Structures are given as structure tokens and as C-alpha cells.
Amino acid sequence: MSEVQALVECPVIVGTAGHVDHGKSALIEALTGKNPDRLEVERRRGMTVELGFGELALPSGKIVGLVDVPGHAHYLRAMVQGATGIDVAVLVVSAVEGVMPQTREHVHVLELLGITHMVVALTMCDLADAEMTELAELDVDDFLSDTVFAGVPIVPVSSKTGAGIDDLLAALDEQVVACWGACRARAELTDAAPRLPIDRCFTIKGAGTVVTGTLHDAPVAVGDELVALPSRTVCRVRGIQVHGDTPRALPGQRVALNLVGDAVAALDRGEMLGVQGRFGQTMRFMMVFTYLGREGAKPRVLESGARVHVMAGTAEVVGRIMLMEGEAPMAVGETRTVQVRLEEPLPLRAGDHAVVLSYSPVMLIGGGRVLLSRCRRSRELSAGERALFAALESGDIAGGVGAWLALQMLPVTAVDVAVALDLGVGEVDAALRGLVAQGSVRKLAAGDADLLADAAVLDGAMDALAATLSAMHAAAPKETGFTPGAVAHAAWPAADDTVAAALISEGCSRGVCASEGAEMFDPHSAAAAARVVREACERIVALLDEAGLDAPTLPEMGERLQLDRDTMTRALRELSLNRSIVKVERDVALSATVESHARELVAAAIADAGGAATTSVLREALGVSRKRAISILEHLDAVRFTVLDKEAGGLRSLR
Known about the structure:
Elements: H1 3-8, E1 13-18, H2 24-32, H3 40-45, E2 52-57, E3 63-68, H4 76-83, E4 88-94, H5 101-112, E5 117-123, H6 130-144, E6 154-156, H7 165-187, E7 195-197, E8 200-204, E9 208-214, E10 220-221, E11 225-229, E12 233-241, E13 248-249, E14 254-260, E15 272-274, E16 281-291, E17 306-312, E18 315-322, E19 335-347, E20 353-358, E21 364-372, H8 383-394, H9 397-407, H10 414-421, H11 425-438, E22 441-444, E23 451-454, H12 455-475, H13 484-491, H14 497-510, E24 514-516, E25 519-521, H15 526-547, H16 554-561, H17 565-577, E26 581-585, E27 588-591, H18 592-608, H19 615-622, H20 626-638, E28 642-645, E29 651-654
Parallel strand pairs: 1-3, 1-4, 4-5, 5-6
Antiparallel strand pairs: 2-3, 7-15, 8-9, 9-14, 10-13, 11-12, 11-15, 12-14, 16-19, 16-21, 17-18, 17-20, 18-19, 20-21, 22-23, 24-25, 26-27, 28-29
Helix pairs in contact: 8-9, 9-11, 10-11, 12-13, 12-14, 13-14, 15-17, 18-19, 19-20
């Protein structure tokens, strides 16, 4: 991004806050030369009832978005919707009245929305003397000392005379610079998808439907396909305006999108635009909730199940605050992890801030940051869930990823982690590399994408595999093995084919299971032992068939096949019983096929010799050493295939 482009595309939003009639709109007009009150009723009443938007040129040349919010208590909802997305707040306080109820309420809202940069504009100084102005400044400083805004600059100004306006612009410029790095980093995220909470929707003749809002998470460009939640309206971006027409907008900017698509004219405030499949909505979420009580009312505790209005982005949904099992009601000023159950879907993601209003009368009572945008319906937290929420609350991404994996029953992909925790894939990959290096997370190869599992979870899956195979062998002792599908379904009913294959492969590498052909089995079971002997038998017979009459000794054969003594002994016993091999010496055996071939050779040689042949003739026919020939011939004598006539000079004939 060039320096000139950076000034124009400054992804920072400045927004006003403060009590009604403290001069917010007049200050905006003094700063920009434009009146933000766009409705006739606003100009007639002299107060803002809807959100006003514009742009502000700072002394450095940066152009930032500007939001003017209503200050009257009746328009708290509009104030919250406008404050969403603000980076730098301008708290407007009258030097004549000082801190007032909506001053306090608006500051609480700003804190709950996670805003940390502020400049105080002490307005109407032309109506207050020096002493009154100083007292108002002390009042503001004292009030802010207990907030995140302690020590922020307080600039006395007069919108009527212009006094202090330049100082205010300079102070704003400093605050914009202070958050500039974070805002630019937010704008340059590569693996995020855009979201736009809609705060206005209107029609322009010749252009069509236009929606406005503060862009979140990622850039949006002309031609992008978007979907609105909760209405699921599909649309395409035909045009974009930020500070004039532009082909794209950055997160953190005020944008107007010209949309085309069926039913786009029906879009309204509270909908959220995003990329299909890259954002969602929820009926339950976990959040860090700070209970403020009702401003100006007698302190009262918050009971579990209290019905409330939940505001996030520009949407508002009725729901209930559920305290965790066994927890006492919340006292004013307490902060806890709570579950929020909604009556309608709310577009939301982890890291978003939500403001909570009492159900009736509608007043600010608290809010906080979303930890998990989707959760199970339960007020009882396991130790693992508490560890997860603690990590998420502290901003420990690696700790959160590790804790979430520890709660899963099966291996998952990095994308699964990113979706569950509303993180970028890059953030998840970085966290996983560290966890794998530590050994707390294991990686399993599964086609194109690796699977990840907590080490203890993976051990548990291996235990389930071992127990399943043991039970299956016990139930079917005559079976030497089972299909991988049957085993996986019994061991891990929720696993898909990819996960099951990866777990079976891990089991084989650990020696928990073994596979042969289309079957798998427990290598420690009796059936597995029988399978090992059977395999040894097949290898022994194959070697003897290949060696022919010049077979190696049994010890030599065991070494060549790398068979242990016990397996060799059991295999030879099995082969002898089923007559697959024939011993011709104490430590020499022939396969049944080779022994049959030896009979054929001997019979042919005897026939050629006229019915009786010498040992020398038969040895030559067999083509082996004299020692091996004598062993074979004595074996044939013993099985009564031939007969030796010693009186005839050692001639052999067929019996």
C-alpha cells in the first residue's frame, strides 16, 4: 500500500459518544463542515435519533470514517449499533453540565465493546467560565480514572467559536496513530473473510439497493458474492463507496455497498453480510460477561435465566443469561463466564463484543466478549471446558487450541479447529506447530490433509481399538480377522472413513492391531498367533518349493525367514500334521510337492535301469549330493515306495 493510498484508505473509525444535548452533532459539524443529522426530525428537535456518518480529514492527511451516535436514553440501541466498529471514541461532555447519566452509560458501552482509545471533547466552553470548565474537566478525569480510559486527553472546545478545534484534531490524530498499527494489521489479514453488520439499507434511483456499515475482518471487492444472515439473502457487490467510489474496501472502514440480487431490497438493519460458509449464526454462545446493574437504580443481583436483549454488531435478539451450575447470582461489578441462550439466531463469532440490555425497562446492564460462538446446552462445565474458556479469555491461542482438542473424542483437521474457535487457519497452523513440537498434540497422516489429536485423546482411541478387537475375537474365536469397517464402527461410531483409516494406521504403527489383506486383527490374540503360524507355514513351503531337493536345513531356513524358534517349531508341527512337508533327515525337510517330484525321478530312473538301479544311478537322477541323495532314498525306503536289496549289491526297485 502506497503512502498516499494509506492516507485515503485509513482503516480507522472515529465515533462520538456522550449525553444528549452536549453538542455531539455541532462538534461534528465544526470538525467536518457538515451536519450529520440526516433526518428532518433530527434537525427540528435539535438532537440525533439515528446514526450519522461521514468522514474526517486529520492534520496528518489521514481520512478516517466518522460516526455520530444519539445521546438520548431512548436511543440507546442506536448508540450501541453505531459504537460497534469504533476504534477511537470522542467522548463529548458539556463544560456546563459535566458528567451526566448517558455520559456514564456510553463510556460503559465503549468499554464493553473493547474500545481503548479515546479523546474527551469538553464542549460549550464559550458558555462556561474558566472555573466551571476546570471543574468539568476534573469531574471527567475523576470519572474516567476507574475505566480503561484513565488519563486520556481532555480538550476544551467551542463548536460555536471554533476554539480548541485544532487541538482536538491534533489529539485525535495522535490517538489514530496509536491504533494505526493494529488497524493496518487487521486490514492485511490474508485468511479471513469479510463481514458487514448492516446499519442502514436504502434504495437510490438508478443504482438500486445500498447497504452501509463498518466492515469487519477482511476486504470486500466489487464482484464478491455475499450472503446475508439470518435471512440467507444471496447477493453480489456491484459497487463500493468509502470516501468516494473504490473497487475494494478494507476492514475497519465505513462502507456503502451497492448490491444486486433477489430480495436485497428487503435487507434491514441487524442483518450481517458475509461469505457463504465462512461465517455463521448461533442460538447459544459463551461469553465473559460483566454485570453493571442499572445506572441510577438500586443495586440488585442478576439471577440465572434472566431474560435480556443481546446486541452484537447491529443485531438485537432476546435471550437469557445462564449462570454456571452451583454459582450464586451475580452482584453488580462482577465478571464471569456465562452461557447466553437466544430465542432467535444471531450472526456472531468468537472475539466479537456483545452488549446486554435488561428486558424491561430496556436499560444497559452489562456485556463483554464472546469466547465461543457455538456451545453445548449445559450449565455444568467440565475441567477441560474451564481450561478452554480460561485460555480464550486470556487470548492464549495455542492454549485454546490445545484445550479444545483435548475435549474432542476423535482427530480433526486444522480447518475444523479454525471453524470451531473462529480463528484464521494461519493462526491455528502456527499454534499446532508448537503443540506438536511439545508432544501434547499428535499429527496423523490422512490423504491430502493431516489430522490432529490431543495426545491423551489419541491414546484413548487406541485403547478403544484394543478393547474392540479383544471383544470381537472373544465373540468369534474361529475368525482370524475382521474388516476395518466393522472394527472402526465398533470402536469409534462417529468416525468417518478418513478418520477411521488414520486411526487404524496409527494402531498398526503402535502394535495395537495388525492387518493382512482385507482383514485386521489383534496381534496379541490367539487368533493372531494362529495367523502368524499360518503365515510362517506359507513362507516355509514357498521356500522349500523354490529350493527343490537341495533344501536348506531347518535351522538355516529359520534364519533365512527370520522366524523365532517358537514360531518355527509350531509351523513345522502344523506342516507335518497336514503333510505339507516331509522330513528326510532330522533337520532337513522337503515340501510335499518336491517329495512327489523326487518319487517321479526315482521311479523313472529305476524303469530306465530295467527295474532296479544302484544308489549312484539314482543320485545322478536326483541331481543332489551323495549325502542328500542317500537321505531321500532312505526316506523313500521307509515309506515303502522303494525297497533296497542289499544281497543284490545295493540295488533299489519299486515296491
